[in-house]
Amino acid sequence: MIFDNKNHGNDLFLKGFERRGIIYTMKQVKVLVTGPYRAGKSSLIRLLANGNSLSIDKHGTTICMDYGNVDLDDVRLHLFGTPGQERFAIIRNILSEGMRILVMVLDSTRPDSVRQAKAILGELGAANIPCIIAANKQDCPQAMSPNEVRKVINIPGVPVIGSSAMSRKGAEELLSQIYQVALRVQPSLPC
What are the tens digits of pLDDT across the range 1-30? Predict the structure, then answer.
């Protein structure tokens, strides 16, 4: 089965299709979770995937990628996390191929993280991909509010959700936002 840019219907996935001998009945959606170094991307993926995740890291720092998946009704979200260090930008570019949703995670306690997130959004051409911003570390007293982050990022129509991967704050709202967007986007091909 070939997917083109004009296929936006969910009925295909309700009937199911076969690839490599596996029958898929759920809509598959690739979500890129990216952001600056130490923003909390791996922790957020672990939280959203309810521990059903893996990370390729060294001493707690992602050096290749994170992966987790979440099944919500008839949608399977494939969460691909990127390293945040600039020297791994090539991995971010590779993992962004085929993404349908971009989740930008930033450390709202660090203004430089917000500026870096805005630059990464520009590099990835976020204007063409549905984007959600997770203003992480909202449990810290010095965190910028989601409204303050929204003003700095200044991209109309992009939701900014306050989150904390440690305290679970905003996780349900973030997952709900991703799911609502997933219902509207073209499906991804299964990995």
Answer: 222 333 333 333 334 545 566 666 789 999
Higher pLDDT, 124 or 66: 66
Domain for residue 82, yes or no?
A: yes
Q: Which of 153, 123, 159 is nearest to 34 (CA)?
A: 123
- pTM of the predicted model, to two decimals? 0.84
Q: Identify the domain containing residue 66 by its residue range.
A: 28-184
With vertex at residue 32, the alpha carbon angle to CA 115 and CA 170, rounded to the nearest 5 degrees, is 70
Domains in the chain: how many in total?
1
In a domain? residue 3: no
Question: Mind listing the pLDDT tens digit for each residue in 106-165?
Answer: 999 999 999 999 999 888 876 588 999 999 999 999 999 999 999 999 988 899 999 999
β 131-136/101-107 pair status: parallel
Closest CA to 90 of 111, 112, 63: 63
By residue count, the chain amounts to: 191
Residue 56 resides in a domain: yes
Amino acid at position 121, single letter: L
For residue 133, being part of any structural domain is answered with yes
Q: Is 93 within 8 Å of 80 (Cβ atoms)? A: no
Residues 6 or more apart whose Cβ sits within 8 Å of residue 82: 32, 33, 34, 35, 41, 62, 65, 66, 88, 91, 92, 95, 96
* CATH number of residue 132's parent domain: 3.40.50.300
